[in-house]
Write a structure and sequence with these properties.
With about 140 residues, the protein is α+β, with helices and mostly antiparallel strands. Helices cover about 30% and strands about 15% of the residues.
């Protein structure tokens, strides 16, 4: 699988890492084609919730799952209002919706490939280039033939 990390996305990861829960956030489990969706979602959240808490960024069932809270969660305390949760949910939903038609690996127009062993949103060239299923270690290697 492809990931966003400090090697291929240093500026974005520097922005995200400050918001990670408990430890610095170091990897987003999405392909490089969604880099701008992750960045846009993060920046929209920061505009409304400057101290938001980032839990995870990943692909789930072929779409972007940006998991966050409006601010850090504290046990036995109400940490945000229903309106704040709804506002954050709308931002995350916009990013998820945009990911439905964007290739996770290259950023081109795409569609959900739900016939794969792992559902992915891919363009036709990426779908053809990367065979299914992944190798035994879970990596998807390009078809060199």
């Amino acid at each position: 699988m492809w990931f966003l990390d400090s090697t291929n996305s240093p500026a974005l990861m520097a922005e995200l890492s400050w918001h990670g829960r408990r430890v610095n956030f170091q990897i987003a489990r999405v392909g490089e084609g969604w880099r701008d969706l992750v960045a846009d979602c993060h920046r929209s959240i920061v505009a409304s919730f400057p101290d938001y808490e980032l839990l995870d960024v990943k692909q789930k069932y072929g779409v972007l799952a940006f998991q966050a809270n409006p601010r850090p969660w504290v046990r036995d305390r109400t940490c945000w209002t229903d309106n704040e949760a709804a506002a954050l949910g709308a931002i995350k939903e916009d990013a998820r919706t945009r990911s439905e038609s964007r290739c996770e690996w290259c950023g081109a127009d795409a569609q959900l490939r739900d016939s794969r062993s792992v559902w992915l949103t891919l363009c036709s060239p990426c779908d053809a280039r990367f065979p299914d299923p992944p190798d035994r270690a879970g990596h998807i290697q390009p078809d060199e033939t």
